[in-house]
Specification:
Elements (H helix, E strand, L loop, with lengths): L1 H25 L8 H16 L15 E3 L5 E3 L3 H16 L5 H5 L2 H20 L5 H12 L4 H4 L6 H20 L3 H21 L7 H13 L7 H31 L17 H9 L6 H4 L7 H10 L1 H19 L19 H14 L1 H20 L2 H12 L8 H4 L5 H8 L10 E2 L2 E2 L1 H24 L6 H26 L1 H10 L7 E5 L5 H7 L5 E4 L2 E2 L2 E2 L3 H8 L4 E5 L10 H7 L3 E4 L8 E4 L2 E7 L8 E8 L2 E11 L2 E3 L3 E10 L8 E7 L5 E7 L16 E9 L7 E10 L16 E9 L1
Length: 758
Amino acid sequence: MVSLKRARMTWQATGMALLLYGMALLVWQGTFPFHDGLASYAVTDSLVRYGRLDVDQIHWMGLHQNTPGPDGLLYARKGFGVTGAALPLAALGLVVPGVGPVHMALLLNPLLFALAGFLLFVALAKAFPALTTRQRALVVLAWGLGSPMWAYTKTFFSEPLVALSVVGLLERLITFEQATDDAVRRRAAFGLGAWLGVGMLARTAHAVVVPLAVAAVLWLSARRVARADVWRTWLRLLTWLGVPLAAAGCAVLWYNWARYGSPFTTGYLDYETFSAVWWRGIVGQLVAPGRGLVWYIPWVVVVPWGIRDAWRRLPVSTLFALGAFVVYVLLYGKWYMWHGGSAWGPRFLVPMLPLLAWLWAPVVRLRPRVSGALLALAVGVNTIGVAWNPGMYDAYLEREKGLDAWFDTPVFFDPQYAQIPNLLRIGTFETLFVVWMQDGRLLWGLLAPLLGLVGVCVVSGVWLLRRGGRGFNKRMLAGITALVVLGTGGFLVQARRLVSPAYVAAAERLQTTPAGETMIWHNDPDHVEYFLNAYKGRARIHGTFVFDAELRFGVERLLALAQEPLGVWIVGTGPKARETNALDRLASRTRGLVKDDTRGWVEEAFFDSLRVAYYFDTDEWQMNPVGVALGVDGTPLIRLERADFTPTAQSGGIAAVRLVWQALADVPEDYQVFLHVLDANGQIVGQSDGPPQNGIAPTSGWRAGETYVDVHAVRLAPNLPPGRYALRVGMYRLDDLTRLSTPSGEDLFVIGEVVVDR
């Protein structure tokens, strides 16, 4: 009978998880709404692509979310929990056709949300057996959809993972308190340590609840054994609890050491401290109009009426739940940004909400109508938070009210600036913050399969909740699981294709480039996740933030990268002219913009508004001093001092020359440089024409005595036969094609030959 009851509970909890997963996908966004999440994901991406911890692909973010390590590379300050948990998903995204690593990683929080709902349902069944299935489901829905937790499934924040660890901790503590068997208590103690470790990995400050959990275990165990056996029992249980907890603690210390060279250095900056006015942070988190818990979770006001019943059944678990919540309020009330910045509700209290929902459960049984009304109100309030990006509210305050949305006190304490009514007022259908709404357009090609997937989750979940698994077997569960997995995969394929088609097209071109020979400079921070999701290669990605000719962030790092003898793909610059784009200017100093007539690429490619251009460089130059003067009508203007060349290439590879020019006089007009690749019959099989340094240094700006390094490159045809091919260069006026020549009349020069191999 007990086994049957447990099986029914498991089926019902599974239905609860399916229901929550479907509701999380319905409002899924597929991007990082805040930089905190992007910083955490950048570590995941770096690990799965290169096995490294640095976040150079978001170097443009500077110190906003990251801190340089002793090696000069940039590292994210966030904990390893979310980063590590997302590794399997991101790795799948790199190898499974059609989907992307970013979208796969962003499934993490919906999955954690569903798993936490499963465990919370189980904890409620263990603690309050008098609750009906419907009442347990209402409590879980109150936590899942009637609190800010729902909004955090759209992010890559640590809140869902910490919340899962809290639910797991609560369920294990309930089991420990109810257990009469030593083996059960030992397993429960181990689970307590494991869940505490998970929370600490996600958020180091979560260690503040460790003393409460240890005290609960010691108190409960002391009540069940003879006085003479207390110390032996404590030692045994603390060992079971301490092993996984110590492992997590060592992992946190290792992560600090790997990034910053010291196990006790977290990377947080001097101003990121517990320095807030304490009473203001406490009041702000609980009741202030701008972030107060009571405004976002209306049912929380009746939680005190459930504490008495919870205390009668499980006093230690109840005391732990209250203590953990109070400790979090006190801890983050002192944090300099107690409100969580761009966030929905009191962000730092969100992981503790399962404890409040558990304490509220007796009220649902005793006052079902009041509880139902409060639940409906709470779901309505939090629908606002999942429908629109809270960042839109921040921008509104700054633009319309002249307020700093993060640090001006009236934002949080003056009712006229309260987040809930203001976000509801400025939000429109066109600004819905969901993946199936892009630039004010409803993507039916994405919404239709999503609704089908959500329908499968909701219908299956409700059926399992109502019937408790009766008439339902493992084969049916396998079928539903397959439908959910395939439906999720199909939805992600559509999302990748419809949301970022330009990046997908560009990524397909970049996939053909060997990772060890190139690196990618991406300078479009607003869409970096689109690129990371589309590109599945292993070439190193370096994120920059460039406005016109000024490098605003990461200048030293970018200059160092410019010296590496690797080809560079520049992605995301849009249709800006090369002469005014800082990345092009930097690349053109030492690299040649590849001309590719053989595959339909002339100099660069545009995919919608996305620009992709390839600059070639190598350290295998063969030096060739030339020292010939060129001019017009016998008047020397320019000397070709040296003409280095690549001695070898492959069919479909690149032949290049590095020309060193010196102006003998002020050059009055612009001239073009040409590079010809000639076969044994003197026929041109490859050609590149363009101004020096790709237009960055036009000859009309050359002054007497100055020297200019100029690289030109051409991609060879993929079917070019092996052999020796001559390299010929020269310079001409574009208007009439008149070439510059030597006093003896030479106007083109064979500077060497490239040996082409298969």
